[in-house]
Amino acid sequence: MSASSPRTAYLRGLRTALPFVIVVAPFGLLFGVVGTEAGLNIAQVMGFTVLVIAGASQFTALQLMADNAPTLIVVASALAVNLRMAMYSASLAPHLGSAPIWQRALIAYMNVDQTYALGHADYEARPDQSTAEKVAFFFGTATPIIPVWVGATALGIMVGEAIPPALGLDFAVPITFIALIAPALRTLAHVAAALTSVVMAITLAFLPWNLWLLAAGLAAMIVGAEVERRMEARR
Fold it and tell me: Per-residue b/e over 183-221, b at no fewer than 16 CB within 10 Å?
């Protein structure tokens, strides 16, 4: 085996992703518990997790459903939260666009916050990797993340209210996103977008059906893009 090979890249991705299991597991457990408490049956909760496979939008949709929000609001809010996946895909395309279509289909399915963040960081740090190595690294990151997410949700369904509130499983949600977002705030545009989303979310928190989420996300993207445009113009 050479010093650099798909197998080496896969194992590196696997090792890099292992620490995220610490937050992915309680995140999945929490969704399993919350989903059943909201009145969904086992098939519905697992369908949510296996088909949507995006925790933030799942929690958003579930909360709105529990609040009896209009279907259009539920769908629009979930899609708005997941708009970041389109940006993730565009960011990964230069690195993985030449991979076989079946591999790209699997990558699209497993393209979640953790796998994207780890993959993109590795590709930027090792630009000379082959496409096969980049694909292998991505699959390596997904190996612990995806099964743990699905398995933890199933466990949350089974144990349900047996999990003591003192464990504070909900800590996993903010910690996951802090761990992913903080290292990515490397430019003024990133920081501006993040600050805009925080300010708008707090300012518009009074809006019903979590509409503040749509407004904050849209405003953050506009501000971030405008700051990036002005920085490029100055260069």
Answer: eeeeeebeebbbebbeebbeebeeeebbbbbbbbbebbb
- Quick: pLDDT tens for 154-166: 998 888 666 666 5
pLDDT tens digits, 39-79:
888 999 999 899 888 877 888 888 788 778 888 888 888 88
Which domain covers residue 84, as residue numbers? 6-170
- Letter for the amino acid at 190? H
Helix, strand, coil shares, percent, the chain, to 5: 85, 0, 15
Is residue 46 a contact partner of residue 158, using CB atoms and an 8 Å limit? Answer: no
The number of distinct structural domains making up the chain is 2
Do residues 81 and 57 lie in contact, with contact meaning Cβ atoms separated by under 8 Å?
A: yes
**What three-state secondary structure class fits 54?**
coil
User: What's the confidence (pLDDT) of residue 180?
Assistant: 55
Query: Quick one: tokens of 199?
Result: 């300010």
What type of residue sits at position 226?
E
- Model pTM? 0.74
Does a structural domain hold residue 175?
Answer: no
For residue 28, give the H/E element and its range: helix 21-37
Distance of CA 50 to the CA centre of its chain: 14
- Helix 83-96 / helix 71-81 crossing angle, nearest 10 deg: 40
Q: Which tokens is 83 given?
A: 């708009």
Question: What per-residue confidence (pLDDT) applies to 142?
Answer: 96
